Amino acid sequence: MSLQEILSVLDQYPTLKGLPFNGLTQFLRMACLARPLIQFQQLDRRIPPTCLQLGVLELLGTSLSNADLDLVALCWLAFKEIVWNHPEVRPTEEEVIEYNKAALGRGTYDVMTLTEPMTHKATLYTLRNGVLPVYTTSLYCRGCNRRYYHNNSVHKQSSLRTYYGGVPHVIQVAQHFFMESPLLELFSNGMVFGWLSASNWARIYNSALAKIYPHVANNKLAYPSTLREPVPPTGWTMEIRNEDVMNGFLLYSILLEKAEQRGILVLPHDEANHKDRLQPVLAERNKEMEGIGQEAYPHACDLCFFVFEAEDGTLMKIQTAHCDGDTIGHRCCKVHDCKVPLASNRQHFCPDHQHIKLKCAVIDCTDNSTSGFRTCSNPEHHALETAYFTRGKSLHKLRSRLKKTGVSVPANSIPEDYDDDDDEVIIESGRDGPVEVDCDGKPEGGNRRLRAYFGSRRTHNEQLIMRCCGVILSRATLYGSEAVSAVNDFAKATFPSPQSTPEFFIFDNNCKLDAHQRAIHDRHFENTGKPVDVFHFTCKHKLTDHHCQLYCNTAAFPELIDENGNWRFNTSICEQTNVWFGGYLSVVRDMEVTRYNFFLDEMIKRRNRYIIGELERKGHSPWMVPMDALFP
Questions:
Q1: Which residue ranges does the record assign to the CxC5 like cysteine cluster associated with KDZ domain (predicted)?
Q2: 273-294: pLDDT as tens digits
């Protein structure tokens, strides 16, 4: 510790300036010697406690001539950070004698021996050493009534498991399976940059990383050697499963976040499986991510934050926000815009709307379906159902959605049986009989034709708001459609204060959004320009649309054009980002909604970190706007 550090603390605690210098140095050395004892009493050893136990206070008080315990407590409060981060102190012989004289008589050494070992077989999946059969042992402390496991402890009278602070090198992802953190980091990066699903990662690991010499084992004709393949031990599972990859990724991500926030992870202990155990903490994190929850939310850099001098000499800034949707979705209730989660992915209706599954699948038909059918007894309605089941089982629905996103990444590299009832299909009566129509299509000739909905329904799209440099600020799920009212609510949740609203909000349907805001007298974005990005304005907006030409023509905003006549900001960033985001269509298609939201938010978080790192490397000076400037 330096004298400057001590003086800085004394300035904050002037009451301590009257302490003798010799007494202060003795207190600091005694506190450093007592640090292992204090750490032993902590759940999280990274953070010094604010208050000490009575025995420890009395111990430290001996260094201050048995001073008043309130003064000792104040000294600890003032110097705890210095003590906690100080290198290990080598005590003198005299200090050892004085410490033992003060400590042993106060019963401060109450370390208990752990007993009642419980051991079982487990499998450790490593990054560099393949798959290892191991044994894991938990021990019980009769003093604190806790059983200590590899990553956590459980009190005898509690149904909660409390994790130790920080991120362990080896993480227990299930009762019999452990994974190294470096391996889980590899899984995470493959998901971000390669759109790799848990199924594909499991297959990659089992083929290339689980074996000691994979290049030889996988290419035996090229290596006609005498390499002897190891015989799998009896009683161990040596292949990694896709559910363990996903559980490991989720638990690892939560532990990382808790460590970054200096928090402790607490999970239910008595749940039947890891999926149910993680559910509450995933839902809590999802709630925190809504609106302004992404860590890169206050991001700014030279590409997205422009400062210029106005005519009166004042400095003005311009920030743009860009909004667009991507046709990724999770399973949802078939009732339009219903946001109640499904009880399981095999259900078509939420618990509140289960009664509707008894109704005919034809729109506006109120009759019950007949036994063994999804339509009523009306022959015309039966014809639509017959067309649905005879159209042939194929992957054309998924492939068409992948084609829209511009990518084609299957969730599983090995084809599996495909349940054609998984995706929503619309059958409509046509001139030449029932035909299948696109989910976004409208009936020909108005609404006169019969329409029936079969299969499960998915949410309409994922909406993103980002900066023009590529950093994503926020994400929201739109259920029924990309209605401008829903986009308006999403934008207000992302920019809830006047200080946080951007100078320009770029959206391909800004003309309708602006008209909606004016119609409902919503003035939240009254100081925000709403141009349509260049591509959509040129190709998809009519010259006769007076409102669009008057309020949303990008050329009408000179601030968006630099001195060379070029666009100052990349107004098409959403289209470019959607190429990356759309790659997750097949990866998340079967995810339960809580995991779905957590996964996408985590992908965005990790990608943002990479983007910001690249901005730094390229000299674009990324920084964070203080949150109190956005929300004073």
A1: 113-208
A2: 888 899 999 999 999 999 999 9
CA distance 465 to 506: 9
**How are beta strands 115-125 and 177-180 bridged, if at all?**
parallel
SS3 content of the chain, % helix, strand, coil (to 5): 40, 15, 40
The answer to whether the beta carbons of residues 333 and 458 sit under 8 Å apart is: no
Binning pLDDT at 50, 70 and 90, where does residue 410 land?
A: low
Q: Identify the helix (H) or strand (E) that includes residue 461.
A: strand 461-466
Lowest-confidence pick of 39-43, 303-307, 471-475 = 39-43
Torsion of CA 309, 314, 315, 316, to 10 degrees: -90
pLDDT tens column, 174-195: 999 999 999 999 999 999 999 9
Residue ranges of alpha helices (H) inside 150-225 are 181-194, 198-204, 214-217
Which amino acid would we find at residue 579?
A: V
Residue 42 has pLDDT above 80, yes or no: no
pLDDT per residue as tens digits for the range 547-584: 666 666 766 787 777 777 777 888 778 888 999 999 99
Q: Which two tokens stand for residue 5?
A: 């550090």
Tell me the CB-side half-sphere exposure of residue 272, using CA atoms within 13 A.
0
Q: What is the mean pLDDT of the chain?
A: 85
Q: What global pTM score does this model have? A: 0.81
Residue carrying structure tokens 């089992």: 206
- What does the block give as tokens for 110? 């109450």
Contact 322, 531 (CB under 8 A): no
Q: Where are the alpha helices (DSSP H) in 394-553?
A: 396-405, 484-494, 510-519, 534-540, 546-551
Burial of 374 (0-12, 13-18, 19+ CB in 10 A): buried
Output the CA angle 132-138-139, nearest 5 degrees.
150
Residue type, 272: A
d(CA 121, CA 317): 61
**Angle, CA 73 vertex, CA 67 and CA 78 arms, to 5°:** 115
Q: Up-side HSE of residue 137: CA atoms within 13 Å toward CB?
A: 6
Give the pLDDT band (50/70/90) at residue 4. confident
Task: Report DSSP letters for 374-431, one per residue.
Answer: SS-S-HHHHHHHHHHHHS---SHHHHHHHHHHT----S-SS-----GGGS-EEEEEET
